[in-house]
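Example 402, ligand glycinamide ribonucleotide.
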Amino acid sequence: MSLRIGTPNTPNAHRVLLLGGGELGREVAIALMRLGVEVHVADRYAGAPAMQVAHHAHVLKMTDAQALTDLINEVKPYRVVPEVEALNIETLVALEAAGTTKVTPTAYAVQCTMDRQAIRHLAAEELQLPTSPYAFASTFEELAAGAEKVSYPCFVKPTMSSSGHGQSYVKTPEELKAAWDYAHEDARAETGRVIVEGKVDFDFEITLLTVRYRDAHTGKDETRFCEPIGHRQDGGDYVESWQPQPLSARALERAQEIAKTVTSALGGHGIFGVELFIKGDEVIFSELSPRPHDTGMVTMASQRYSQFDLHARALMGLHLEEITQERPAATAVIKAAAEYSDPAYLGLEAAMAVPGTDLRIFAKPEAHPGRRMGVALASGPDVATARERAQTAANLIQLENN
Ligand SMILES: Nc1ncnc2c1ncn2[C@@H]1O[C@H](COP(=O)(O)OP(=O)(O)OP(=O)(O)O)[C@@H](O)[C@H]1O
Ligand SMILES: NCC(=O)N[C@@H]1O[C@H](COP(=O)([O-])[O-])[C@@H](O)[C@H]1O
Ligand SMILES: [Mg+2]
């Protein structure tokens, strides 16, 4: 059936419901609205970044099955687009199976990638992709045994988490108890389980943005890749990213092969952020997002179609002729250093005076130490210049209580 885009806010509107309304959802909302879609955004708090630009906002506990079902029945979206991990995935799986709701990319892909145990099972065991050594634990004793198995140093993470929430780098057995407690305190969603992973000794890490879309000429599902994105993480959360990250021909081929294998197994249409560790020509799978990736915000400065445009197009079943990177670019994250309520941002004049820069101010109504509140984007003649410009611009932005 061909796509029919009705007028927003009328009965014939083409509605999409985003579950999660952070900085990534905000850009997806804008990309969808440019294509005439009526956008609904749900999240756990009012005034979330995407709510500030969408047609309709819904505040609810998305982990509550009844509340989520009621919302979907009320909005009757053409597609439900999960943007965070903290949601009741069983509800989405059931609604998709009943044929009443389409989930982007698929309910299975969302379920599998939000749970480190499920994605390891798929990637390492079924698909036989190389990963770090790992073990799962539901008790502290199991964690201690798992850490011995993967050996120190290791990473301990909640099985449902993102942006480094609840993640610890553990160098000795003495540090393990604190890591166990922290994983339970700071998980995005508490499952009672943690993963312990042996440390991968890598040269650098990348995100390979991978798009699955319906080809208008053949009617078949096809896969395309963006140029690799390099990034630097601190405490499990990204602080800086750039594109392109050069790779050897062999490593690039292997990275694309791994990304295609895992995204094809997950299915559906949309963009995926495939996280990979690179050591020489060797490529090790880490994890992936079934949606735009935080490090992929760089594509707003580097590509003809950003990862958000690509996601919007693909999820609507539209064609992608090509993905072109137009210039080297970088991002640097702006994080809060303290608690703020309704914060104000200062320093925009100086930041924008740095050549090639742009800003995304997320305008979250509350800040706490370490919360991502904005990002500086920069392009330049080469990646090194773009990185320096983005860093300089980000450092010039300050937050202040109103
Ligand atoms: N086994 C490992 N070996 C080496 N480094 C690791 C390992 N696991 C995690 N890291 C480091 O920590 C970062 C964050 O880990 P991971 O992606 O699993 O966390 P996350 O909470 O899902 O973060 P995000 O949502 O940003 O992807 C990685 O990008 C990497 O820099
Ligand atoms: N790595 C995943 C990621 O970057 N997700 C992005 O962060 C938001 C949550 O931010 P918050 O914790 O500040 O509310 C999410 O809504 C999403 O946009
Ligand atoms: Mg990650």
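Summary: The first helix runs from residue 23 to 34.
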